[in-house]
Amino acid sequence: MVDWGLGRYERTAEKLLPAAEVVVEEAGISGGETVIDVGCGTGNAALLAAEAGAQAIGIDPSERLIEVAAATAERRGLDAEFVVGEAAPLPVETAEADIVLSVFGVVFAPDPQAAAAEMSRATKSDGRILIAAWIPEGPISGGVRMIRETMAEITGQSGDPPFPWHEEPALRELFEPHDRSVEVSERRIAFSGTSARDWVESESRDHPMAVAALPLLEQAGRVEEMERRLIEHYESANEDPDGFRVTSRYVVAEITPR
Fold first, then answer.
1. In angstroms, how far apart are the furthest CA atoms of the chain?
2. Model-level pTM?
3. What CATH number has the domain spanning 9-257?
4. Blockwise average pLDDT, block size 10, the chain, 258 residues
5. Best CA proximity match to 82, nearest among 93, 92, 97
6. DSSP structural state of residue 39
7. Is the Cα dihedral 135, 137, 142, 147 positive or negative?
8. What letter does residue 62 receive in the DSSP assignment?
């Protein structure tokens, strides 16, 4: 399990804000509704929900990120509460939420079945769940996969393949036992910087997964190799000849009562 409090996830969250805006807009939040943000990080979606008039509750296992989110809510005078907790069990009452959101958060839950059951439990019978999940292809996904494969070589532990949160049939199977239907739509998000090298260096400093990998890469003497391969990977995928830009695809799954 990655400690998402490592590095400077705040900077990663800034890059992901457009996806949170998409999910909150699709949720169609009304004033007075209760919205739970699962795996909230620094609070992107929860804060947007509070701005839309909801009573927002953000939940994340990282105490540091919860503190950052709570400080932001207080500074902006928003009705948002932030709680340290896991996707399963969720530290909320049954049927507490009109809407449960997760923007690239619940996709890291170690037990997808338990997470789906908890999200369903926390949602009112007529409520809805919205999940943003990456489609595992494209430059960013390829870079992450390169790091994971290298780490597997170093440790000799490949691990199980991740649950396909982006696939509608898999989500239907996950939520049908809870009397819920699933509809999936595709979205895109662009990431930009001054160069592929700058992108790799900033991600190495900021992103918790990269920060967590660094000690093992150093121990194996593979830091420079990893950096070189990642830069070459992103240079080959660059969409902007005057700078750096790559585009990732993701889905927004809306899960509603049947």
1. 54
2. 0.95
3. 3.40.50.150
4. 91 97 97 96 98 97 98 96 98 98 97 98 98 96 93 88 96 97 98 97 95 95 97 98 97 97
5. 92
6. T
7. positive
8. -
